[in-house]
Amino acid sequence: MGISFTVLSSGSTGNATVVTNGETTLLIDAGFSARRIDELLQERDLTGGEIDGILITHEHSDHIKGLGPVARKYNLPIYANEKTWDAMNKSVGKISEENRIVLDSGEVKDFGTLRVESFGISHDAAEPVGYSFYDGDDKLSVATDLGYVSDKVKRAIADSDVLVLEANHDIELLRMGRYPWNTKRRILGDMGHLSNEASGEAMSELLTGKTKRTYLAHLSRDHNMMDLAKMTVRDAMEERGCFFKETDFKLCDTYYDKPTPWDKVSKP
């Protein structure tokens, strides 16, 4: 069947993504109330009972707000590395031992025919990660909440058919914005969030004939806009000699308040 996915919602108010190959269905992060997650799933004709497990990228509240309630409600296993478990224990609440599963950073785990590879990223969390998903020739990678795209991350997400990649802020809008300087400095730093420009710079190195779409994710509602993000990413790619036609490669939207349409990684 191959891989299909929907970004249920993405942004500073909450994050959750569903990845499925028809045999296994996984939720990446649970950054909303259990009720809101149920609503978002229903918008894509899913129920919590159809989820087989939850992968966690890191312990910040916009990624685990509803984790405990959702996992308990549907008796779901949670996969996270040791340091992330330690950091989120109090927030998540009581989880049965059989559902507390350690997935080390860099580990590869097979869920039936769906293979998941965890890779470390740079962010101000205990041990944040991104994930790549494989089924046959399909590869989908999800990398958000990272201050910069290291060579290690580039190797992990290289040759993806589809990327979900952070484009958090426009640098000038952030600098002129209402946040205190220490918050701005955190966001702009190597342990913060990826700017539109940095996202475009990374894409100029990552774009190959295999990569067909990149979903720009985790956009700041205060310091970014989707049209601006796409324009800046495209300009940054072209400045580095990376030109493309919409028929060959597309920059796609994500939303803070609604899911993206289902997308099949390898479209006919």
From TrEMBL:
InterPro entries: Metallo-B-lactamas (IPR001279), RibonucZ/Hydroxyglut_hydro (IPR036866), WalJ/YycJ-like (IPR052533). The keyword Signal does not apply. Signal peptide: none annotated. Keywords: Hydrolase. SUPFAM superfamilies: Metallo-hydrolase/oxidoreductase. It catalyses: 3',5'-cyclic CMP + H2O = CMP + H(+); 3',5'-cyclic UMP + H2O = UMP + H(+). It comes from the Bacteria. The keyword Methyltransferase does not apply. Residues 13-218 form the Metallo-beta-lactamase domain. GO terms for molecular function: hydrolase activity. Counteracts the endogenous Pycsar antiviral defense system. Phosphodiesterase that enables metal-dependent hydrolysis of host cyclic nucleotide Pycsar defense signals such as cCMP and cUMP. This is Metallohydrolase. It comes from Paenibacillus glacialis.
